[in-house]
Specification:
RNA_pol_sigma_r2; mainly alpha; 2 strands; sigma factor activity; RNA_pol_sigma70_ECF_CS; 63% helix; Rna Polymerase Sigma Factor, Chain: A; DNA binding
Amino acid sequence: MTNHRPAYSDNELFIFLISRERKHFEVIYTLYSPVIYGFLIRLGLAEKYSEDILQQTFITIWNKPVPIVSNNKLSFLSWIVQITIESTKKYLENKGRKFIIHQKSYPSVSIEFTDVLEHECKVQHIA
């Protein structure tokens, strides 16, 4: 039986970011980029969108002030998912897409593209 316990605690991961050391950031990227990319793909985003958003998410993670974590109330994954959702919103807005993000809690997040319906109606109306 394998142990699924993370190699690092949430506090250690936040400390890695505070240290601003490239080797620590590489650890975080290695651990979380597949998780975030998979999350974006499961949202129904195209691979190109997912790759771009993944890149923007990690740029934001590197540049964003690290939250002060008291009593372990904020998980590292929750923090990264929130940044990913914000990066997704910005990316889609910059692409001119119309959408609604339905968010309860990770992994219960979905995107509804409202411009697809508008586009389909316009195409049917023209034809």
